[in-house]
């Protein structure tokens, strides 16, 4: 079902895994360039053409109407609506702790320094359509933006062939406080948010997941607008000891594998027994699941059970992989996690499976993939804030510092910089 | 000396300014690809070849020795050394306020959620060589990394033809707490920090300014390693009223213009009188300065005095330009700055000129350029920290939430996600 590797003898799996990056396809590159160019030049007109071409539907008014949202609230299962509300509250509670305050430092009345922290004014959220239209994506992106105080949160998502958006996605957007929803997707949607069109407002930052066209478009517009990280394929790494439940481990590996064929599901364990049992469980569980074809391919491509000689070695491997999701299924998860240096999110103990984090617990599910947790962080309120420095010196304060500033400027050969200080004391 | 524009009649300058982005040169692109490939494959060997080719010097040992650092401390002017120490203290004091603590949220003993904030382990700082070898670059990049708690701060900077590094740069690195300094620059240096070579350690994040080859190399390795923002040409926008001193304004516009021919120096004022006087002052001051050729070209390319009909209009223009540096030279700067939405750093009043911030006051001089202050922030301690989420649910807690999680997962069509919850209660 899955490769089993002795960590000592690993002859390349970890390297293969760590090299698993997204390729840039020349063709995608060209298509996206053309789309962005057309949207910038021909705006709504081009947007309508691309929507017809890619989403197979003619859209006159991209804006989702109040009626459509009301309909979504009527159609949605009440339980599901309440689930989304509960999830939203949990996300809100967790993220509110991330708010940060401006600060100032005073030195008497002569020096005032500050850092002003404010929300980005306008933000665009991309939500995929089709089978990847997830209400959880909406909540995880919109709630932190709302908490940050973003004035205008715009969401775009591709319509289906009937020109509709999924009920749960509309409901999630509404309860999360999204201001406007537009039926547009793909690279053309990213272009619209970047350059603005007659109907879609230009924003300062674009966040959210998407297919390779969306990802490449985001990469290309980065710098004109801010973007969140470009996410790679999803990953889970589970550290387990002999006390873990093989059934749970198998289910969690599989839950990651169902995302797509590039997803990586890895068990690292110092127990031969667990390795064997998990492999057996995988075989049984996979057959019962809807997405078994994807799961099998994913497990074959990047699935692995790595057998180590000690828990220390298991943790070393986890730190090297720096996984997006890390589950610790051992007797003492609260001791072990402190040794973990690199991970997007850590799930502790046998009743904290990864889907709990995807939907519900509160921490963000947008996490650094492909080893980037060595330097990157989960999406958070901070991604929707920006800072400005503040500098005030009185004449007396500048007087006391002028010689130092002039000397450093002159050492750097920037004599006009030195002059800007000098003219003030001539 | 400089174009004077009536804000109402502006027929394109602001647009030209806002479109002033960095072009991607096809040739640079190819060269950088080749360099990165060679460094990854042939490591130190390629590094030595490129150093000979570009820096015109044969380097056996890239590591700057203790003796070289000691020599720098002996050779440097004592006053300058103390200036750098004072600047370092100011930077430290300002940035220490940016440190952030991990947090946890408890719901009894059943739910523990957390955000662990930790330093990135290894960071590389790029410092340009030649006439752009600035000790202030070292301090502004290394001090926040040190405060964040980065364990290993590595600095690279190209050597001169004698294989040496500027004294003030070595002294700044030493007092800022840089752990290792290597004599290597260019795209090859960025490659070395990204992939690691026999002598240069692989890092997780690379920060610091550089020429177009360095910038393109950073852009290309982004994702494998973290990078800071790719900086565009520098900018200053000064808002002045009739009470401002034209001499100071001219000096400050010029100090920005001396950086390079693409730098933008803009005065926005509601006073015709000030506009006229500043233009006269520019003519006088420019002639007295060493870098007058660069200054003249820069003022011609992107310099402007924009005359507005009111202070409100001046602020509106500033918010649209979203300048890297904003000086407010009016009678009531402390009232006005609150209306500024977008700026990298704001300098208040006539004794807070921009070079004060470049070298000395404490806030970082690495600031968002090219209107990116609409979504981006000054470099800070945060850029050297990373977060990991923590999730623990007890059996009871998961039990209470399981139906919600399962319903959302099933709405999303991710049945293996739902299964990962279900198996725990079978």
From TrEMBL, chains A, B:
Binds 1 zinc ion per subunit. It catalyses: L-histidinol + 2 NAD(+) + H2O = L-histidine + 2 NADH + 3 H(+). Substrate binds at residues 234, 256, 259, 325, 358, 412, 417. GO terms for molecular function: histidinol dehydrogenase activity. Its cofactor is Zn(2+). Keywords: Amino-acid biosynthesis, Histidine biosynthesis, Metal-binding, NAD, Oxidoreductase, Zinc. InterPro entries: Ald_DH/histidinol_DH, Histidinol_DH_CS, Histidinol_DH_monofunct, Hstdl_DH. It is an enzyme of class 1 (oxidoreductase). NAD(+) binds at residues 126, 188, 211. Pfam families: Histidinol_dh. The keyword Mitochondrion does not apply. Its EC number is 1.1.1.23. The active site is at 324 (proton acceptor), 325 (proton acceptor). PROSITE patterns: HISOL_DEHYDROGENASE (PS00611). The keyword Calcium does not apply. PANTHER family: HISTIDINE BIOSYNTHESIS TRIFUNCTIONAL PROTEIN (PTHR21256:SF2), HISTIDINOL DEHYDROGENASE HDH (PTHR21256). Catalyzes the sequential NAD-dependent oxidations of L-histidinol to L-histidinaldehyde and then to L-histidine. This is Histidinol dehydrogenase. It comes from Tepidibacter hydrothermalis.
């Amino acid at each position: 079902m899955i490769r089993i590797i002795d960590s000592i003898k690993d002859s390349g799996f970890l390297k293969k895994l760590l090299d698993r990056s997204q390729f840039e396809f020349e063709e995608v590159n060209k298509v996206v360039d053309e789309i962005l160019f057309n949207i910038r030049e021909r705006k709504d007109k081009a947007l309508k053409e691309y929507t017809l071409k890619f989403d197979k539907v003619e859209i006159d008014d991209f804006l989702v109407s109040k009626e459509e949202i009301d309909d979504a609230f009527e159609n949605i299962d009440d339980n599901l609506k309440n689930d989304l509300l509960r999830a939203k509250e949990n996300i809100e509670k967790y993220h509110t702790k991330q708010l940060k305050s401006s600060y100032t430092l005073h030195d008497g009345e002569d020096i005032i320094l500050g850092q002003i922290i404010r929300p980005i004014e306008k933000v665009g959220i991309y939500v995929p359509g089709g089978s990847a239209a997830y209400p959880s994506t909406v909540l995880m992106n919109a709630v932190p933006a709302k908490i940050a105080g973003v004035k205008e949160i715009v969401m775009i998502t591709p319509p289906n062939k009937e020109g509709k958006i999924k009920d749960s996605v509309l409901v999630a957007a509404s309860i999360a406080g999204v201001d406007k929803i537009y039926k547009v997707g793909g690279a053309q949607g990213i272009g619209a948010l970047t350059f603005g069109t007659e109907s879609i407002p230009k924003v300062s930052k674009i966040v959210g997941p998407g297919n390779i066209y969306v990802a490449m478009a985001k990469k290309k517009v980065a710098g004109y607008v801010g973007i969140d990280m470009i996410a790679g394929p999803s990953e889970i790494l589970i550290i387990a000891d002999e006390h873990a439940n093989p059934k749970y481990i198998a289910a969690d590996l599989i839950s990651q594998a169902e995302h797509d064929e590039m997803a990586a599901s890895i068990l690292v364990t110092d127990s031969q027994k667990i390795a064997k049992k998990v492999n057996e469980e995988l075989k049984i569980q996979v057959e019962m699941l809807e997405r078994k074809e994807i799961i099998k391919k994913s497990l074959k491509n990047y699935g692995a059970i790595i057998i180590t000689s000690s828990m220390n070695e298991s943790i070393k491997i986890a730190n090297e992989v720096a996984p997006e999701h890390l589950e610790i299924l051992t007797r003492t998860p609260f001791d072990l996690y402190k040794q973990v240096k690199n991970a997007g999110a850590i799930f502790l103990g046998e009743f904290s499976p990864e889907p709990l984090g995807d939907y519900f617990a509160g921490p963000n599910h947008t996490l650094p993939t492909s080893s980037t947790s060595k330097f990157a962080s989960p999406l958070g309120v901070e991604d929707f804030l920006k800072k400005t420095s503040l500098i005030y010196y009185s004449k007396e304060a500048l007087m006391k510092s002028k010689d130092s500033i002039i000397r450093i400027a002159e050492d750097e050969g920037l004599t006009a910089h030195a002059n800007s200080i000098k003219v003030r004391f001539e």
